Amino acid sequence: MSTTGPRPRGALERQVLACLAVADHPLTVAEVLTDLGGDLAYTTVMTTLTRLHDKGALVREQVGRAYTYAVAGDAQAMGSSVTAQRMRRLLEAGDDRAGVLTRFVAGLRPEDEQLLAELLAVTEHPEPR
Amino acid sequence: MSINALLAWPLIASAVLALTGPRLGRALPPAVAVRLLTAAALVSALAAGFALAVAAFAALAQIPFVSALGHWSVTVLDTGPQVSAPAGALAGATVTALALAAAMRALRGGRDLLTAALICRDLDAAGGGLVILDDEHPDAYALPGIRGRIVVSTAMLRALSADERRVLLAHEAAHLTRGHHLYIQLAELAAAANPLLRPVAHAIATAVERDADEIAAAEVADRRLAARALARAGLARASAPARLRALAGALGGADANVITRARALLAPPPPHQRILATLVTAMILATSAVSLATAKQTERRFETAQASYTRHT
Q1: Sign of the four-CA dihedral B121, B126, B130, B132
Q2: Looking at per-residue confidence, does A128 or A108 come out higher?
Q3: Count of pairs with CB atoms under 8 A, one residue in A, one in B
């Protein structure tokens, strides 16, 4: 699906990082471009990958004439265990009162699963225009 | 307007806001709802607390010992609000308890925001503030801080397509750039100071999620895609292990329900509702004006009472 909205720099870095984090093998620029969608230029993706590599967020390896990129190992770690503990406390605090963390999806009721499946089916059809 | 009517206004305004808040939250565009409802809740809570304090003080000042201490003429004070001693005592006890509850909520909110800011500082996030947790539980949230972070688990990323991931990331980024966590904390503070406003705080929390949804839908220029991302993320969480489902059920309640949000995205973009927004703004201004008038009247009456006391002695 082609999307036409603007992609701010930080947003593109996040998308590239998210894409590489779930890939089961290191990806080339072309593979990242295919995953992210049609409206991006090859050079834009390449620049973003290089910038993330320079910041230490990605590791790269030369395969033939191209580089393949993967998420740097420590980028996925949760810092120190103190940080992890603090985070758990904040998340638990949000369970019974309005906390400072806002989850993407919360407030699920047991009967919601069926409704969600129906909604998903509706949204997967092409938009009637 | 009589002083008793002035004192009653903030309580009536709070009750009206409590009754209409959830509906206003749904009718107004989310971005407007977040700001206006938070302002309305804060002003109503402050005004109601002030009215209770004035009522309590009026009753207190009519006790001969207190009026002598303040050099106030009781005959002049009698022209003010007619608050019986028990009613005054009740108002005083209520306003003290609510002020304490609000102070405690403010401390708790401040502490949580500080903790979040400290975690942000500790989390290494080289890629546009995104922190990816290697975790089998699908989860995603925004962590506010000086430079906030977006935290997403690998399980959540795997559940979504690249397009849908873009929606999720834009939604969480919107929370951070709009400072949504501050509105939620202020709404909670207002609800602690005036429990009548509890439904309004829920409405604000819902509007915050809707606002982030609308911003994400605008960024990908596809409302249907945004709805699909929500449904997919919801299903991923719903099919997570039972332990996690129980947790998810406790979060936020049905107010910020994902079904409602997805349906809103499948509907056309929300209309401006300028008249409704103007009405709410007028209510906020009127409540502020009433509080100022109460303060002026009360000050003037006590000054007169003091002058009269001096003349008679």
Answers
A1: negative
A2: A108
A3: 231
Ordered DSSP codes for B189-204? HHHHH-GGGHHHHHHH
Q: What is the 3-state secondary structure (H, E, C) of B114-160?
A: HHHHHHHHHCCCCCCCEEEECCCCCCEEEECCCCCEEEEEHHHHHHC
Q: If you search the block for the tokens 């009162």, which residue do you land on? A: A97
Coil, helix or strand at residue A68:
strand
- The answer to whether B15 and B44 have CB atoms below 8 angstroms apart is no
Which residue in the set A55, A103, A127 is minimally distant from B251, CB to CB?
A103
How do beta strands B149-153 and A58-63 pair? unpaired
Name the residue facing B127 among A13, A36, A104 (closest C-beta).
A13
B64: containing domain:
3-312
Q: In this predicted structure, what is the pLDDT of residue A20?
A: 94
Between chains, do A102 and B212 touch, taking CB under 8 Å as contact? yes
- Taking an 8 Å cut-off on Cβ atoms, the answer to whether A82 and B122 are in contact is yes
Domains and CATH numbers, chain A: 9-75 (1.10.10.10), 78-124 (no CATH)
CB neighbourhood size of B6 (10 A): 22
Residues in chain B predicted with pLDDT less than 70, given as ranges, are 1, 241-256, 313
Q: Average pLDDT, stretch A69-79?
A: 70
DSSP lists the bridge partners of residue B131 as B151
pLDDT for B180 equals 95
Measure the CA–CA gap between B103 and B100, rounded to whole angstroms. Answer: 5
Interface confidence, given as ipTM, is 0.88
B299 phi/psi in degrees, rounded to 5: -60, -45
pLDDT at B83: 83
Reading the block at residue B74, the tokens are 């009781």
Taking CA atoms, what residue in B is nearest to A23?
B158
Residue A92 clears pLDDT 90, i.e. is over it: no
* Residues A85, A71 contacting (CB under 8 angstroms): no
Smallest CA–CA distance from B210 into chain A, residue = A104
Q: How many domains does chain B have?
A: 1
pLDDT over 90 at A78, yes or no: no
Do A78 and B123 make contact, defined as CB atoms within 8 angstroms? yes
Q: Say how far residue B267 (Cα) sits from the centre of its chain.
A: 26
In this predicted model, what pLDDT tens digit does every residue of B42-95 receive, in sequence order? 999 999 999 999 999 988 988 888 888 888 888 888 777 778 889 999 999 999
Mean pLDDT computed over every residue of chain A? 82
B293, B300, B305, B303: which is closest to B5 by C-alpha?
B293
